[in-house]
Automatic annotation (TrEMBL):
Binding site for NAD(+): G11, A12, S13, G14, R15, M16, E37, G101, T102, T103, A125, G126, N127, M128
Record-given protein name: 4-hydroxy-tetrahydrodipicolinate reductase
Location, primary (coarse class): cytoplasm
Protein's pathway: Amino-acid biosynthesis; L-lysine biosynthesis via DAP pathway; (S)-tetrahydrodipicolinate from L-aspartate: step 4/4
Length: 269
């Protein structure tokens, strides 16, 4: 039997970074071969296990991304857009699978990531959970069945530290609703209503973002009709959910050709 796939985790000290490290260490299908942090971070040079407050695990935190990627079969990356674009280039150079959970990416970031995917598989999704990806499918199905007599609103809630809105998941749900309706999301999106907004426009898709406390992630798609409403809802209660999905994506992508993939591909939905 060959060696287990080697995994590098970026943003090691972050909320998702630490969750990903624990998930890989607990897995019998992969091994942790590297952890990355920014230059100057006080974890650089330390064993990642002790930096996280536990026992030594034999992996030293580094700021040398290319050297770490060259030793890996996959990179799990939940950081920030600027970092992720740079990591996509370096993972492609190292021919390592790049699993991207980072949200808030601009269209130009996504274009650069697309170029990197010519050289190695990239799996990117605003949400790595089975439940949310199923919710995306259901949203498209319901939006296809109902016409614009039903107003679509997407409401999401996250912890107080989240920096982007609407969430990546809310945008996936909005894209699915628009696809089901056969319209372009950019032309029908209503984001951040405030002041004298005028009445709601028929056919528009509304987004609302709530931020507070330690909410892991909650998403609801509501179809408001006359005298009735349909609500589709997902609540994440543990970040480990996303980390398990990311590891599953990394293992799945080992057998794929270079290109762009998402969790629908990984989960076969
Ligand atoms: N797709 C999914 O299923 C999920 C996606 N996410 C997304 O993952 C991302 C991270 O979330 P979370 O872990 O909560 O955030 P955190 O802020 O806790 O962690 C982000 C980490 O990335 C590091 N980082 C940021 N910018 C850079 C950079 N330029 N170079 C190197 N490292 C950098 C941060 O370091 P520093 O502290 O030094 O800035 C930090 O360690 C977000 O975009 C979030 O939306 C989250 C959960 C699930
Ligand atoms: O920042 C988070 O925490 C999360 N981000 C993702 C998003 O933007 O949808 C996924 C999840 O909801 C948690």
């Amino acid at each position: 039997m060959g060696e287990l796939p080697g995994i590098v985790v970026t943003g090691a000290s972050g909320r998702m970074g630490q969750m990903l490290i624990r998930t890989v260490l607990e897995s019998d299908k992969a091994r942790l071969v590297g952890c990355l942090e920014r230059p100057g971070h006080d974890w650089i040079g330390r064993d990642v296990g002790t930096a996280m407050g536990g026992a030594e695990v034999g992996v030293t935190v580094t700021d040398d991304a290319l050297e770490a990627f060259a030793r890996a079969q996959a990179v799990l990356d939940f950081t920030a857009p600027a970092a992720t674009v740079e990591f996509a280039k370096l993972a492609a150079q190292a021919r390592a699978v790049h699993v991207i959970g980072t949200t808030g990416l601009a269209p130009e970031d996504i274009e650069k990531i697309g170029k990197a995917a010519h050289h190695a598989p990239i799996v990117r999704a605003g949400n790595m959970s089975l439940g949310v990806n199923l919710l995306v499918r259901l949203t498209r199905q319901v939006a296809t069945a109902l016409d614009a007599d039903f107003d679509i609103e997407i409401v999401e809630a996250h912890h107080r530290h989240k920096v982007d809105a609407p969430s990546g998941t809310a945008l996936m749900l909005g894209a699915a609703a628009a696809e089901g309706r056969g319209v372009d999301l950019d032309t029908v999106s209503d984001r951040g209503r405030d002041g004298i907004t005028g009445a709601r426009e028929r056919g528009h898709i509304g987004f609302s973002a709530v931020r507070g406390g330690d909410v892991v992630g909650e998403h609801e798609v509501i179809f408001y009709g006359a005298g009735e409403r349909i609500a589709l809802r997902h609540m994440a209660t543990d970040r480990a959910l996303f980390a398990r999905g990311a590891l599953k994506a990394a293992l799945w992508a080992q057998d794929q050709a270079p290109g762009e993939y998402d969790m629908m591909d990984v989960l076969g939905l």
